[in-house]
Q: What sequence folds into this?
């Protein structure tokens, strides 16, 4: 199984990491979109599991969560979705999930099943290094990489503490705020990347608010090892609910543009 | 964080990384100021002259006669704003002022916490935003108008079920993007550490007063102390005064809605399972996968699928007992207090009264019971009218 390290060491450019909510707008339609995204040039996938109360997400991903839930998504189906993707292509997958879903599964079985399905890491949106001891040993046991977030208001000393616990990549949040596409890139993102790079050699991937090929390029030039694009892509599903074929084409086209921008 | 913020296995701060620095700042400020002489003095004056403390401990003699016990009502309904919420709001807003924050945000269900925050936002000259579920905006429209009159911006939250939990989601999201100048004035004894501790502290004035008044007026401690439970702030406030008096029975009453078997209720401690929501590990109403349940209650203030961590611990240890009462019985209790004593209770507080009515036959005449009348029912008159007509 391909690891994050395999991807980052094999690339001379920043990795392209699109985000999807699993099963949005439905199981089959969602699967087709993600497969297209892989064909269009995604290096790693970031996949979210629908939750009723996603406090770290803006309106676009909230609505995607609701669409997936309404279409009948649940944990068993989500894991099957991941297995189907892995059968299609050996591409690293990071899961983004809220803690209660793991806790109820329950946790130990969750990490084992996620690993078995082909997941490389599990980022828990509402868990920081302060409480991570509850689950990190289970993730390790299952052979998963660890990923935590760093945000613009994280102090240098805490960045050090956080990155010491990461084996996958640093999920760097470019803005203060929740997920959502933004017209302009945060002016402080370069500084944040530099602060992280000053204390660690672990790959730094930047997400939240990256909405255009230009943004992606700028972030890559500022030293990011990967760019994560979520809401902008998910909004293309929302815009084309009556025309699934158009959603696939739009997303595919957008990912190709992003890839080109990163290759320039 | 300096402290783990745990009540047994419950509590903690399960939040996105971006909130850690602000929660740390809040924890530090709280522990710096809550025992500070000037802070205590400022808060005492505000509690006395602005909120109207102390509130009476009133012997409801006609209702006592009816129930066959001695009932003392802790009259939080007489506070400015009409509910216990002002205790917490004055404390936290003062903390915000000491922290030099200029803006307040809050979530609200019944609108009582939103109103208390709006009032104090006006008092302190702070820009105030209140997040409120769209359904609640509808059913508590009087409070919405009052908040606006105090200059607050009321933001209806459409997502989810349009109730308190969605308002909290949205307030947390807003806070995430505005951490530097905005103070999140959390309304109940739940949420991430340090909120359960902070809210308990500022509401403990209820229990401290009630215990002292009870001893002064009756020369003894009560046999039972009863309060309604939404997130648990008014209950933990009054329980805190008696929790060390082992002989005093503590009873929390949750919203039974249309009935526990119907699955339409908000009886988190009675019927929930441990999980994580809004930054805290506690009992929760949820489905088998961990998706949070839609709750139902006639009272917007109890319509919440979570509960404060200290109540979870009190339940597990058996120190407090938790029960749930259904909407129908709550309406009966509401009407009973109106007719017996000429006091209109909030539908939230009426839950506690409904439990007393249910226990009626079991009391001895000299049994002394304190009920925390957490708020007044003016806001609910329209709802009662509607339900009773149906
Ligand atoms: C009058 C009154 N009582 C009780 C509550 C429930 O909250 P808590 O359990 O935090 O006291 C509310 C909440 O809005 C309320 O307005």
A:
């Amino acid at each position: 199984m391909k690891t994050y390290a395999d991807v980052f060491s094999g690339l001379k450019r920043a990795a392209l990491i699109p985000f999807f909510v699993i099963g949005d707008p439905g199981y089959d339609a969602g699967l087709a979109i993600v497969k297209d995204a892989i064909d269009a040039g995604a290096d790693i996938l970031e996949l979210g599991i629908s939750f009723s109360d996603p406090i770290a997400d803006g309106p676009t991903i909230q609505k995607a969560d609701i669409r997936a839930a309404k279409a009948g998504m649940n944990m068993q189906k989500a894991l099957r979705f991941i297995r189907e993707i892995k059968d299609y292509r050996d591409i690293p997958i990071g899961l983004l999930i809220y803690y209660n879903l793991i806790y109820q599964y329950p946790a130990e079985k969750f990490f084992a099943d996620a690993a078995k399905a082909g997941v490389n890491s599990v980022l828990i949106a509402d868990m920081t290094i302060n409480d991570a001891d509850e689950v990190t040993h289970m993730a390790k046991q299952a052979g998963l990489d660890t990923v935590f977030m760093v945000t613009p208001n994280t102090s240098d000393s805490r960045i050090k503490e956080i990155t010491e616990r990461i084996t996958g990549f640093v999920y760097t949040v470019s803005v203060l705020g929740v997920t959502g596409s933004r017209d302009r890139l945060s002016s402080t993102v370069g500084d944040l990347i530099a602060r992280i790079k000053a204390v660690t050699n672990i790959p730094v991937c930047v997400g939240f608010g990256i909405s255009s090929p230009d943004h992606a390029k700028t972030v890559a030039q500022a030293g990011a090892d990967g760019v994560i694009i979520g809401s902008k892509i998910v909004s293309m599903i929302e815009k084309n609910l009556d025309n699934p074929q158009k959603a696939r084409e739009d997303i595919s086209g957008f990912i190709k543009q992003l890839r080109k921008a990163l290759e320039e | 964080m300096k402290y783990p913020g745990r009540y047994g296995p419950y509590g903690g701060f399960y939040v996105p990384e971006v909130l850690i620095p602000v929660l740390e700042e809040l924890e530090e400020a709280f522990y710096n100021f809550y025992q500070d002489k000037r802070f205590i003095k400022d808060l005492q004056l505000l509690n006395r002259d602005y909120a109207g403390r102390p509130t009476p401990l009133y012997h409801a003699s006609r209702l006592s006669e009816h129930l066959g016990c001695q009932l003392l009502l802790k009259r939080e309904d007489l506070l400015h704003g009409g509910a216990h919420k002002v205790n917490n709001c004055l404390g936290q807003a003062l903390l915000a002022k000491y922290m030099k924050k200029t803006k307040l945000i809050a979530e609200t269900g019944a609108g009582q916490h939103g109103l208390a925050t709006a009032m104090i936002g006006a008092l302190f000259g702070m820009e105030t935003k209140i997040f409120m579920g769209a359904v609640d905006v509808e059913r508590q429209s009087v409070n919405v108008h009052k908040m606006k009159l105090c200059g607050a911006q009321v933001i209806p939250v459409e997502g989810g079920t349009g109730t308190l939990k969605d308002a909290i989601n949205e307030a947390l999201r807003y806070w995430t993007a505005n951490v530097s100048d905005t103070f999140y004035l959390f309304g109940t004894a739940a949420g991430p550490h340090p909120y359960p501790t902070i809210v308990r502290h500022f509401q403990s004035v209820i229990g401290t007063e009630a215990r002292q008044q009870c001893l002064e007026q009756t020369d003894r401690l009560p046999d039972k102390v009863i309060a309604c439970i939404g997130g648990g702030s008014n209950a933990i406030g009054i329980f805190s005064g008696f929790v060390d008096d082992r002989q005093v029975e503590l009873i929390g009453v949750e919203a039974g809605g249309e009935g526990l078997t119907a699955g339409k209720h908000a009886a988190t401690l009675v019927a929930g399972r441990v999980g994580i929501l809004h930054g805290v590990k506690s009992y929760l109403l949820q489905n088998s996968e961990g998706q949070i349940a839609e709750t139902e209650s006639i009272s917007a203030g109890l319509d919440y699928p979570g509960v404060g961590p200290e109540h979870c611990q009190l339940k597990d240890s058996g120190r407090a007992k938790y029960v749930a009462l259904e909407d129908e019985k709550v309406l009966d209790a509401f009407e009973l207090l109106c007719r017996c004593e000429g006091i209109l209770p909030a539908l939230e507080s009426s839950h506690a009264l409904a439990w007393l009515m249910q226990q009626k036959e079991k009391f001895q005449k000299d049994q002394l019971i304190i009920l925390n009348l957490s708020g007044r029912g003016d806001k609910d008159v329209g709802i009662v009218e509607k339900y009773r007509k149906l």
Remarks:
- Residues B 83, 109-110, 112-113, 188, 228-235, 301-302, 346, 348-349, 374-375 surround pyridoxal-5'-phosphate (CB under 6 Å).
- The radius of gyration of chain B is 19 Å.
- Chain B has a mean pLDDT of 97.
